[in-house]
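Researcher: Quick test of sequence recovery. Tokens follow.
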């Protein structure tokens, strides 16, 4: 069996409004409001190209399988936020997330970024996400207790890019 070819694109399309939202929902990690946020961010990017939201969409044989959404932090000389990293449920555990994050880091570094910040929930369900960031060379920098809800902390991970 031949492995599917991964292709990356750095733009979003009208069809991505629903496709990327469906990928996000398929993970089982994000609630309905968060899925709507993905739709809103794609829409905002399409209607306001200078919105500051940048995208990297990974496609397997032409079908979107995962994505990152990221951007430079306004007012910062070299710090960037990784807003989203999503790999659809059917594409998880094959290294696609790692490939996406590496490609995103390369892009940020090429744009002069030196620090990439990722945030995630402190819920037990997100332990695999926190471990993913650690395996990718991120450091657990800080935690804000009860940020999202009582018992749901916000964890900050950082990576120096050079």
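Model:
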């Amino acid at each position: 069996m031949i492995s599917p070819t991964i292709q990356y694109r750095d733009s979003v399309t009208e069809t991505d409004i629903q496709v990327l939202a469906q990928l996000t929902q398929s993970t089982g990690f994000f609630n309905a409001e968060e899925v709507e946020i993905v739709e809103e961010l794609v829409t905002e990017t399409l209607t306001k190209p200078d919105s500051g939201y940048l995208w990297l969409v990974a496609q397997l044989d032409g079908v979107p399988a995962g994505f990152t959404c990221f951007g430079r932090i306004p007012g910062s000389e070299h710090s960037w936020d990784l807003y989203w990293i999503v790999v659809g449920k059917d594409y998880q555990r094959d290294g696609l997330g790692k490939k996406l994050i590496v490609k995103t880091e390369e892009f940020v570094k090429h744009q002069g970024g030196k620090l990439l910040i990722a945030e995630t929930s402190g819920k037990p369900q997100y332990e695999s996400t926190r471990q993913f960031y650690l395996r990718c060379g991120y450091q657990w920098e800080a935690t804000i207790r009860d940020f999202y809800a009582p018992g749901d902390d916000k964890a900050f991970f950082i990576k120096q890019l050079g």
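The chain is about 30% helix and 35% strand.
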